[in-house]
Design goal:
The complex is a heterodimer of chains A (about 325) and B (about 650). Chain A is mainly alpha-helical and about 325 residues long. Chain A contains 14 helices and no strands. Chain A is globular. In chain B, helix 7 packs antiparallel against helix 9 and helix 13 packs antiparallel against helix 14. The chains are: A mainly alpha (about 325), B alpha+beta (about 650). Chains A and B meet through helix 2, helix 3, helix 5, helix 7 and helix 8 of A and strand 10, helix 5, helix 11 and strand 16 of B.
């Protein structure tokens, strides 16, 4: 058991190291010159300014030197300065956006997982019923629909106010701009800004969990031990919650934990529609501007999150599933 | 009563209790907060806040490193220029400099600096600030400001608290104060000197003149930046030492949105007072009939152009330039380029792509530019849309369709005889107007026997492609300065990307020694009218030679609430930007005022009141607790 754990941790660590090295070369291999991206289209686009920008960004160093600097910085948690965010330290740029991302995407992931699982469980259990057919159609629809489209509709309805829909909620952002709210007022302000994107994200993602859970349950329901439990006279509700669900939950757990890992990647389209300051949109901007330091740090954050989430899933499995422990 | 009914009653009881509680708490809260000014507390009944927004992101609030049009709005209310642009017509007017003395040889310039300004931290502004700032820009290659200082030879010197003087390498009229050329905002020496030493006011780690984020800032104008959250908002407050005309607003707040739909919703809901740069003519049209909303398709010096690779692989190898890339040889022929110009109908593009907003394009110097600089072709000079004429031109020049497939081939005596006129045509995936224009242009070119292969790439990628010379046609845009010097510099032989890797501005690879000669002449010409004569001739050369086809002069779509603020100042007067982007100091920040008592209050917080949230929270906790307790009880009976 301990050997299993140590093995898993070592594996995670090695993956992390590989990501660190790969990270660096991945972005340097991309064609294009960040200096020119910055200045293109403006009157500052001339060889002198470009050379100045390149020097400011440290791009005039040969590649091996840049790599050594990168490794040293990475291991001391010094992520350098962002190219596009006018030289702000990368750690500041990310730390400013990380909490809103976790807040929105984290709560939406948990909510969509909880609701999705419940829908999947009841749908799978009452297979063929009106609830099952209805919920299946619903989940397939929300899973297939583009979430930014749904987001814009929700924005127009509940922020702009269309027809019977009341215009209650703010049009975007994390909080009311430049307001000096503190304490409870601030919390309420953030909550109000979060309602619409939270709603859209939850609805958009619950389909995934519902469908996987439903299928998982259908697989389990046909197994022998369910027959045995029925034969023993166990009540239907007990069979569902004590016998079927725990076994059907395992594949879904993988998906849930992967999703938790991906919380940090943000939700690009929702951040776009609701002007929510998140890591997803930040990444898109960084790619567009070839902001190497920021991109490297972001991808490292995402990789670490997924690797750690997977590690936790692996460890949790040993408790959830005795078969893994015994193996 | 069965257990089922009991539990349902319990839930109902909790919900009713929560709702009742919520209503009571809400009522209590409502008594605390004051009427129209929302939950911001304090004495907001008096604070007048002008809130504006856009879907654009600032690059930097520090004039050393900012370069986007959006950034300038934060400088026009806090920093002075030496010579300002008049709001009415962009003519030169004194600002920080009250007088300019030019030596007889036009190589020494002395500016008289006013002595009645104070920085927002109480330090008086002197000529030292001017000299220091210009040298700082020049010696640190500040991205935009240093461009206008390239003619200066040596340092700018403050000879006394109200005079600065400097010399130029060659005689020039650019610094005479007659044209608003010196686009350099004057910064506080006492702040930036410390920044140079590594002491930033906000104690940040990367304290360099360009890296310094300039928040909070110290300005000489009526406002300064107090607070900024990158990607979210910027807040400017009043300079307590400002002695000029008193502004009617206390704060300026800029709110950043990620998309234009949200921006429009915010304007309609009254969350913001002014929406900048709507980009979508459809969204703009949706606002035209809204009550209490004013709109304008403002004219700014912004144009889109059809770029043609006139010779990255064939041009003269002067300076650092080495032939590279694989542009189609037909485009080296000005006749072919002229035919292409004749095939493109600018008016149709304006009508279809911009829904009628903006103006058809002709010359490189846009309608909004320094008075007298622009040459607009008329009469015989005008090359009108003429498909038949274009076909005739190509026939006469020997570009015939010898194999009957609808595509012309190069003449027998050309660089590459028999090669079909098939061009790669790049549009930009992050600019919808380039994608919308492509089908029209493609069809017109087919009508004159030219086949095009359209590909959408990101701006980033297109930059690389143009640089490598691996394109034939591309659609891009420029935002030139008011003074034509910068725009004209984009066509000189030395501005061509030299080697396939390095960037430069002449993306059409145009190289004409006669043109270069005239460029140097207009820079040195001291008589304004003679200078404009040369500038006109240069525009005519470019119009005839057509390295670019100017597709349209882009509109700046803006909207505002007419029931909150008034006092916008359009620049230029007829149809310009109401927020007066070109200024140091822009008058608009002094003239903006609330329409009526209380209409300028800060944006209210929107959403569900705190009381309801608390009620919801209580209800959720109660339901969850109930479910857990119930299951625990039932679980004991399990098999």
């Amino acid at each position: 058991m301990r050997g299993y754990l140590i093995g898993k941790i070592a594996q995670a660590f090695l993956t992390l190291l590989f990501v660190l090295v790969f990270n660096f070369f991945l972005f340097r291999v991309m064609p294009g010159d960040p200096a020119a991206i910055l200045l293109r289209g403006s009157a500052a686009f001339n060889p002198e300014s470009l050379a100045a920008v390149r020097e400011d960004l440290g791009l005039d160093q040969p590649l091996p030197e840049q790599f050594v600097t990168y490794l040293g910085d990475a291991l001391t948690f010094n992520w350098g300065d962002s190219f596009f965010q006018s030289g702000q330290p990368v750690s500041e740029v990310i730390s400013g956006t990380i909490w809103p991302t976790i807040l929105l995407v984290g709560t939406a992931t948990l909510a969509s997982a909880a609701i999705g699982l419940l829908i999947g469980i009841y749908g799978g259990w009452k297979r063929g019923s009106r609830f099952d057919i209805g919920s299946l159609s619903f989940t397939l629809f929300v899973w297939a629909m583009p979430e930014f489209w749904f987001g814009i509709l929700v924005l127009m309805a509940f922020s702009g106010g269309v027809g019977p829909f009341p215009a209650i909620f703010p049009s975007g952002g994390y909080e009311t701009a430049a307001s000096d709210l503190t304490g409870l007022s601030h919390v309420v302000d953030v909550l109000n800004h979060m309602v619409l994107p939270f709603f859209v994200l939850t609805v958009a993602y619950l389909g995934e969990y519902a469908l996987i859970m439903r299928n998982s349950l259908l697989d389990v329901v046909g197994d022998d031990f369910i027959q045995t439990a029925r034969a023993k006279g166990v009540r239907e509700k007990q069979i569902l919650w004590r016998h079927a669900v725990p076994n059907a939950l395992l594949p879904t757990m993988t998906v849930v934990f992967l999703s938790i890992g991906f919380i940090f990647s943000g939700a690009i389209t929702i951040e776009y529609v609701f002007s929510w300051p998140g890591l997803g949109w930040l990444t898109v901007q960084a790619i567009e501007h070839k902001d190497y330091p920021l991109l490297q740090a972001l991808f490292l954050v995402f990789s670490v999150a997924v690797i750690v989430a997977n590690l936790i899933a692996d460890i949790l499995y040993t408790y959830l599933d005795p078969r893994v422990r015994a193996a | 009563m069965g257990r089922g009914t009991k539990s349902r009653l319990f839930v109902a009881f909790v919900l009713v209790g929560a709702i009742a509680g919520g209503v009571f708490i809400q009522a209590a809260f409502a008594q605390e907060t004051t009427g129209a000014t929302g939950a911001t507390g304090q004495d907001d009944d008096e604070k007048v806040v002008f809130t504006w927004g856009s879907a654009g992101e600032t690059s930097s609030l520090n004039p050393m490193s900012g370069y986007l049009a959006l950034d300038f709005y934060f400088w026009t209310s806090q920093y002075h220029l030496l010579i300002n642009w008049a709001q009415k017509d962009f003519s030169a007017e004194p600002s920080l400099a009250t007088d300019v003395e030019v030596s007889d040889d036009s190589m020494t310039f002395t500016y008289t600096i006013r002595d009645d300004l104070t920085w927002s931290d109480g330090v008086p502004l002197t000529a030292e600030d001017v000299a220091y700032t210009l040298n700082l820009y020049k010696n640190n290659s500040a991205y935009l400001p240093s461009v206008y200082l390239s003619q200066i030879d040596g340092d700018v010197v403050a000879t006394d608290p109200t005079h600065v003087t400097f010399n130029t390498a060659n005689p020039t009229s650019l610094y005479s104060g007659k044209v608003p050329y010196l686009y350099d905002y004057i910064l506080p020496k006492h702040i930036f000197e410390e920044v140079e030493k590594g002491n930033c006011p906000d104690d940040s780690e990367h304290c360099t003149p360009k890296g310094f984020d300039n928040v909070p800032s110290v300005g000489s104008g009526p406002f300064y930046i107090e607070e900024a959250q990158p990607g979210e908002f910027v807040r400017m407050v009043r300079n307590p030492y400002w002695e000029g005309p008193e502004p009617h607003i206390d704060e300026i707040v800029y709110r950043q949105f990620r998309n234009n739909d949200a921006l429009v919703e915010a304007l309609k809901a009254g969350e913001i007072d002014f929406a900048y740069d709507l980009t979508s003519p459809n969204l703009f049209n949706s606002l035209k009939d809204e009550p209490n909303i004013g709109t304008v398709a403002a004219q700014v010096p912004l144009f889109d152009y059809f770029n043609m690779n006139t010779g990255s692989a064939y041009g003269p190898e002067t300076g650092d330039f080495k032939r590279h890339g694989d542009g189609h040889p037909a485009l080296t022929d000005p006749v072919v380029r002229k035919a292409i110009r004749m095939a493109i109908d600018s008016q149709t593009l304006v009508d279809k792509v911009w829904l009628g907003y903006g103006t058809p394009g002709t010359t490189v110097i846009p309608p909004v530019s320094a008075a007298g600089a622009r040459w607009a072709p008329t009469g015989d000079d005008l090359i009108a849309w003429d498909i038949d004429g274009a076909n005739q031109l190509l026939d006469d020049a020997g570009y015939l369709d010898t194999d009957g497939d609808g595509v012309r081939e190069m003449p027998a005596d050309s660089i590459d005889p028999g090669r079909p006129l098939e061009f790669r045509y790049f549009v930009r995936s992050n600019d919808q107007t380039t994608i919308d224009a492509a089908p029209f242009i493609q069809k017109w070119l087919r009508d004159i026997g030219i086949q095009t292969d359209v590909e959408a790439v990101t701006s980033t990628r297109l930059g690389d492609i143009e640089n490598a010379g691996e394109f034939d046609l591309a659609h891009w845009g420029w935002f030139p300065d008011i003074d034509p010097d910068t725009a004209l510099s984009w066509f000189t032989c030395d501005s061509r990307p030299p080697d396939g890797q390095t960037y430069d501005n002449d993306d059409s690879y145009y190289c004409n020694p006669e043109y270069d000669q005239m460029y140097a002449e207009q820079q040195a010409e001291l008589d304004i009218d003679k200078r404009w004569d040369i500038v006109h001739q240069m525009q005519q050369i470019l119009y005839e030679d057509s390295p670019y086809v100017i597709l349209w002069y882009s509109p700046l779509l803006e909207a505002w609430r007419t029931d909150t603020f008034t006092g916008y100042k359009q620049q230029p007067e007829e149809n310009g930007d109401p927020l007066e982007n070109y200024g140091g100091i822009s008058e608009v920040w002094l003239s903006l005022r609330p329409v009526s008592e209380g209409s300028g209050a800060a944006a209210q917080t929107r959403g569900i009141p705190a009381g309801v949230w608390i009620a919801l929270g209580v209800a959720v906790v109660a339901v969850v607790a109930f479910v857990i307790l119930r299951r625990r009880r039932v679980g004991e009976e399990d098999v």
